[in-house]
Amino acid sequence: MNLIIRKAKIVDPQSPFHDQIVDVKITQGIIEEIGASILNIDTHQEFQHEGLHLSQGWFDMSVSLGEPGFEDRETITNGLNVAAKSGFTGIALQPNSNPIIDNQSQVHFVKQKAANSATELFPIGALTKNSEGKDLAELYDMKNAGAVAFGDYGKNLANANLLKIGLQYTQDFDGLVMAYCQDDNIKGNGVANEGIVSTRLGLKGIPNLAEELMVARNLFLLEYTGGKLHIPTISTAKSVALIKEAKAKGLNVTCSVAVHHLVLTDEKLDGFDTRYKVSPPLRTEADRKALIAGVLDNTIDCITSDHNPMDIEHKKMEFDLAKNGTIGLESAFGALLTVLPLEKIIKKLTFGKSILNFESQIIKKENKANLSLFQTDSDWTFTKEHILSKSKNSAFLGQVMKGKAIGIYNQGKLVLA
Predict the structure, then answer these.
(1) At a CB cut-off of 8 Å and minimum separation 6, what does 119 contact?
(2) Which pTM was predicted?
(3) Domain parsing of the chain, residue ranges
(4) Choosing from 102, 266, 301, 306, which is the catalytic residue?
């Protein structure tokens, strides 16, 4: 659709219009004109909203949807609609469906399902067959089919040699390996962060060491092999320090943190509410502050919702038995604005595109209109009415938010919350 967006404040340090309140004229999906009081001589549709801000489109590096196989949790069509209304113009889809996305036909399937959506879907292929950690999957075939990275969602690769071979093999086609870090032997039967809270509640603990050992091991492997490594959803202060040290050495490593680890701590577990059971677990306030510092000094490259819908049968049960995961798309921006400055949030919600070598769509004339629409002033409380996902397992219910996503313009379509 052809559109004029009225009186929007641009938040894009790369744009010549950064920090200015302007009109943006979009024709056939391309920014035709930016300026004050643009005349509507072509009968474009118009959109205006109080306190409207525009940035480059947000991109989420870790989204699970369910389809195929777990459509009761979420479908691709509804999941992409949720992402659009939450301000995201693109998502990287985790391979943890049933069947696992570990071959080119599965990559083609999810891409075809997403073909006409305003929010673009980029599949992550499984690193190992069926994400079982035994044999490498068909990485090159999946890359040719459209997979943007390779990793086994939420699963640590115990076989160090297999990760070594994966890092070496993917260099032939500039592939990105994603390595979730958690030593399963040290984790054992743990269900919560090992510390004062888990001891008080009688929950089996997962020490920070379980994550940090694997971060250290994987960075050693990267130093040996070369290649590109992404460490998703780190959760401890020591992990931040290890990655900072690796970057100083010149290693090609990036990392992400989930919104819930920046905002919430293990103190939330007092009521044994399984909405707060996530992997890695919510950590202490000291870890949370270290993660915030890691975002501010750019050790942490991007922020993800780590959106993971889970049906009620797997959440409404004893804490020990419940599955890990929280949905996070709808609450991501509003939660982040309570703990981080706006420009840093935008940078971290868009940097995933740089990690994947996507072209940056700066807000300027003749560029594709790939835009997130949002406002920053409102204080509100996140409730079930704000959940658009089929699954309702949000760790942010009852949380006070600041600012809101209004929607997106992408692929020639305007989608509003």
Answers:
(1) 80, 81, 83, 84, 88, 89, 90, 91, 408, 410, 415
(2) 0.95
(3) 3-53+365-416, 57-355
(4) 306
Tell me whether the omega of the peptide bond preceding residue 341 falls within 30 degrees of 0, making it cis: no
Fold exhibited by the domain 57-355: TIM Barrel (3.20.20)
Contact partners, residue 319, CB within 8 Å, separation at least 6: 191, 192, 203, 269, 272, 274, 277
To the query of whether residue 270 is one of the catalytic residues in this protein, the response is no
> Is 122 exposed, middle or buried, given 0-12, 13-18 or 19+ CB atoms closer than 10 A?
buried
- 3-53+365-416: CATH topology is Urease, subunit C; domain 1 (2.30.40)
**β-bridge mates for residue 58, sequence order:** 88
One-letter identity of residue 175: G
- In sequence order, the 6+-apart residues with CB closer than 8 A to the CB of 349 are 58, 59, 60, 302, 303, 332, 333, 336, 372
Inter-axis angle of helices 237-248 and 208-225, nearest 10: 10
**Each residue's pLDDT tens digit, 4-38:** 999 999 999 999 999 999 999 999 999 999 999 99
Q: What are 115's two structure tokens?
A: 């073909």
Query: Which residues neighbour 281 within 8 Å (Cβ) at sequence distance 6 or greater?
Result: 190, 191, 192, 193, 206, 235, 266
Structure tokens that stand for 22 in this block: 């302007």
Residue 99 pLDDT > 90: yes
Band of pLDDT at residue 388, cut at 50, 70 and 90:
very high
